């Protein structure tokens, strides 16, 4: 209670915080030192049932009676409250996830911006009239799905809540949120913000718990009309399979093996910060992390040298020290990353640079050294599989055709970056890369709240962020009126 500032052991259902049905809790550990942060509710199917029932009632109650403009005003209040509490939210995210405080604050500001964007967009979703047969007027309406389920991961709770729950609420859905059991403090704080902003009872439920219990119950619940999931490919497949039994739509934002492609004519001074930061931000635990750096051979050695210099200067430490890189989320994730580094060592993959871990790091912390590996072949396991840690591989290429073959040559297709001054090449690459977003001479566009986000292939389907998300969180109804 003293560390967090509110009771973390409850679920939010029908506008009230209460004990979960099981009465059990789960430990929430600080990845920076292994200490106990808090206990959270171990929600289960009974809690999900109650949350869905309350959400269904809200759709025909005060929440469902609000106009789009009124919904938007509540979201704008939530945005303002989020900004007011950005420092505290940043602290919670740093403690819970292990990311440096400055990254946690950026996430809080991003969540506020999502709520602002969707608050302003709530009454801007329009239908259309359709030219049709004489004697008819045909039109389309955008309507909420109903109850939407949101299963969010531990790496960016605030950002993903903002872009999924914010958009769903803007469209008039009632949301049941299942945060990750590894990190959910800011998800719980979001519930307090929503209630303070006047969100009607039942419009938002928050049920923490294990994925195989609360998450499985939500993804298979017959009262849920749409599911949004961000996480691993394996779990995404389970969720889509469960949703298929109820024939409901799913938005899946899954893994990535995103490349940044550096041509010989690139502005290297501009590229270098993005090449490194997009790989080590949040200790590499980012679906869109630039884990592959593809570099044209004439500048490969120079890029490797300059990236190595930046790696050598990285500062690693506890999240509250607010350095460059914190810990990974858990001992299990640390073992996964260390396993990939062992594969690199056993296969002779050369370490081009590795940040130094200070000797005084907390013994219980989940630290791994940020590592740059180069050169790698395009088919190497570390160039094909998602590592989800601060590890990047560099791959040389000759010309556009080989760059495209390497970039498109994985099971993933989430994000790509292209660095070149050649305007024709920029457009050719953008059109031929198999992914959901392409960034030219930048990477991430500063967060790009307005820019639709999602992937192809094993990176998932559907789009969140931007106006496109509002279409995904609504269904289209066609009305044909015969009047002659």
TrEMBL record:
Does Glycoprotein count among this protein's keywords? no
User: Has the keyword Oxidoreductase been applied to this entry?
Assistant: yes
Q: What PROSITE patterns has UniProt attached to this entry?
A: ALDEHYDE_DEHYDR_GLU
State the UniProt keywords alphabetically.
Answer: Oxidoreductase
For this UniProt entry, the molecular function terms from Gene Ontology, in alphabetical order, are: oxidoreductase activity, acting on the aldehyde or oxo group of donors, NAD or NADP as acceptor
Active site, per annotation = 253
**Sequence intervals crossing the membrane:** none
Report the InterPro entries cross-referenced here. Ald_DH/histidinol_DH (IPR016161), Ald_DH_C (IPR016163), Ald_DH_CS_GLU (IPR029510), Ald_DH_N (IPR016162), Aldehyde_DH_dom (IPR015590)
Annotated Pfam families: Aldedh
Q: Which residues form the Aldehyde dehydrogenase domain?
A: 17-479
| Family to which the UniProt record says this protein belongs | Belongs to the aldehyde dehydrogenase family.
Recorded protein name is Aldehyde dehydrogenase
Please tell me the species this chain comes from. Answer: Pseudaquabacterium pictum
